[in-house]
Design a protein that fits this description.
The structure holds two protein chains of two kinds. By secondary structure, chain A is an alpha/beta fold. Helix content of chain A is 32%, strand content 16%. Classes of the chains: A alpha/beta, B alpha/beta.
């Protein structure tokens, strides 16, 4: 309707940095004395400051949501955010933040601990979804944003969007919770634990202080990523992409790469280990495991959500088995039974958990229809 | 849309302001939109058609995408004041199951359906052809309807299932039919409750 031009990229973007010197109390009981947050913004804040949208990232994401860096890297949700895209930067002021404990510039294990003058490493405190939200709220204060028009996230990002509406009920009008869950299942924690053990048992991990040894536990981190990657794809999509294709025409009875899926996983693992930080991976998987807003309500999610005031869109994908549709439905029913406005779409997309990063037409049509109705 | 108007008005008259309402097979959400405008209901729709989900989101109503044939697991007992199924029951396979579910999650159910025994339909059958009308607008080979039943059939099902009919209104061309509804009415609307409930 209001489509006048084809959707575009937000174009070149430059990350910004904010320093916070007021200590941040953490859920673990610890305190982060001071910290930096790296963030990006797209579009412009209107005079009423009512059009801000926060995009929360998942396990391996960053503040680089949309647009292009000077080195050519494109934001991880560039298909969603931009002029004419479902989250339209002509209407909204969109913010992406690298979470605390991250490895893309915000304070984390690979940044310098001011107390010791050395990298934090394993001494960086445990951070939780709630801590991330608290830090994001301080950034919002800094940017003059009292209330977000929406907080949006997929997977672990969806948990942050949900948590925003519980920690700061008056500061969020809409939450878009995509391919997420109200808490992890035992199976999910199990996958995370395998990933962590791969890192913790790497001889080059050095109890988390590998920076000082000038090494990186790349083998463990690559293995962790390989396990994770399996869970992000569906059985069908993996079969379609790789099937049982062999490098050679027939089995050659070796432990080198034979099946194409082996090649793919090794490539993905090695690539990831080349840029991601192992301590960040450990911290982030623990944040996922710990998230459970119903914990203080004897497991009653409806009771936990009663303090929320936002409207919600919940989206899941039929082939996502890491954060299955049934987990999204738990959120939906709990919201409905707490008298929150909520809509729920279950998208028939073959790509598994990773579907939330793709631009499936039905998925984007639902997002666009919902977001178009958000008043600013 | 204009066909639905009298249907909407009847339903709105059965609903108190501010109620919790669930609309099963809510289409593009226009009934819920209407009920929230005239009765300020807290409304939720259920749909499973992707295009209608988008239409509901555009309409600004709450829609939940599930397959109703699987029942309403996840919905608490008695949470809704009214559970509505407007002109969709004939397209459901699990008729008894969904009626039981409606009266489990709702204190009352509102059901409307096209009357297969309407005299024009009977005439059509006598002439050897399946009826095609305003309320049954499909050809036999492309109809989404899977259950073909009459007002008398439905009354008898309710009696057998322990469902109390609190009110029944039958219509033809938007006019109330009092005499011989099973012959003269094209559409019927029911207000239902659990017998003894």
């Amino acid at each position: 309707m209001q489509e006048l031009t084809a959707p575009q990229s937000v174009g070149p973007v430059v990350p910004q940095r904010a320093h916070f010197s007021e200590p941040l109390p953490l859920k673990s009981g610890g305190v982060l004395p001071a910290y930096d947050l790296v963030y990006e913004t797209y579009g412009s804040l209107n005079a009423e400051r009512s059009n801000a949208v926060l995009v929360c990232h998942a396990l391996s994401g960053s503040h680089h949501v949309a647009g292009t860096h000077a080195n050519g890297s494109v934001g991880w949700w560039d298909n969603l955010v931009g002029p004419g895209k479902p989250l339209d930067t002509r209407r909204f002021f969109v913010i992406g933040v690298n979470n605390l404990g991250g490895c893309y510039g915000s304070s984390g294990p690979n940044s310098i601990n001011p107390a010791s003058g050395k990298p934090w490493g394993a001494d960086f405190p445990f951070v939780t979804v709630e801590d991330w939200v608290d830090a994001q709220a301080r950034l919002a204060d800094r940017l003059g944003i009292v209330r977000f028009a929406a907080v949006v996230g997929g997977s672990l990002g969806g948990m942050q969007a949900l948590s925003w509406t519980l920690q700061y009920p008056d500061r969020v009008a809409h939450a878009l919770v995509i391919a997420s869950a109200p808490k992890l299942t035992a199976q999910n924690i199990a996958f995370n634990e395998v990933a962590r053990q791969a890192i913790l048992k790497d001889p080059e991990f050095h109890a988390g202080h590998y920076y000082e040894h000038g090494v990186v536990p790349t083998r463990g981190l690559a293995l962790a990523r390989m396990v994770g990657h399996i869970t992000y794809l569906s059985d069908d999509s993996m079969d379609q992409k790789f099937g049982r294709s062999l490098r050679h025409d027939k089995p050659v009875f070796s432990y080198d790469v034979e099946f194409e899926i082996e090649s793919y996983l090794r490539y993905q693992g090695d690539k990831f280990a080349g840029f991601f930080d192992a301590n960040t991976y450990l911290l982030t998987t623990k944040a996922l495991d710990y998230y459970d807003p119903a914990f203080d309500y004897a497991g009653d999610l409806t009771a936990a959500l009663r303090r929320a005031k936002a409207d919600y869109l919940v989206v899941s994908f039929t082939t996502d088995w890491r954060f299955a549709p049934s987990r999204s439905r738990e959120i939906v029913y709990a919201l409905m039974h707490s008298d929150r406005r909520v809509s729920y779409a279950e998208i028939d997309c073959p790509a598994g958990h990773d579907s939330f990063l793709l631009d499936d037409p039905q998925y984007h049509a639902v997002l666009r229809a919902y977001i178009d109705n958000i008043q600013v | 849309m204009s066909f639905h108007r009298f249907d909407y008005d009847v339903i709105a008259n059965w609903i108190e302001p501010g109620e919790r309402v669930l609309d099963l097979g809510c289409g593009d959400g226009s009934l819920l939109r209407y009920l929230s405008d005239v009765r300020q209901v807290r409304g939720y729709g259920v749909e499973n058609d992707p295009e209608r989900i988008v239409a509901c989101a555009r309409n600004g109503i709450n829609v939940i995408q599930i397959d109703m044939e699987q029942g309403l697991a996840g919905f608490n007992d008695g949470f809704f004041h009214h559970v509505i199924m407007s002109l969709s029951l004939q397209a459901m396979r699990n008729t008894q199951g969904i009626l039981a579910e409606m009266l489990r999650v709702g204190r009352e159910a509102v059901v409307s359906f096209p009357n297969f025994a309407y005299w024009r339909h009977r005439q059509s059958i006598l002439n050897g052809r399946m009826p095609v009308s305003k309320n049954l607008p499909y050809q036999w080979y492309d109809t989404p309807n899977v259950r073909f039943f009459t007002i008398d059939d439905f009354d008898s099902l309710c009696a057998g299932e322990g469902i109390a009919i609190r009110e029944r209104l039958a219509f033809d061309e938007g006019k109330v039919i009092v005499d011989e509804p099973n012959f003269l009415a094209s559409v019927a609307l029911y207000r239902l409750a659990r017998a003894g409930g």
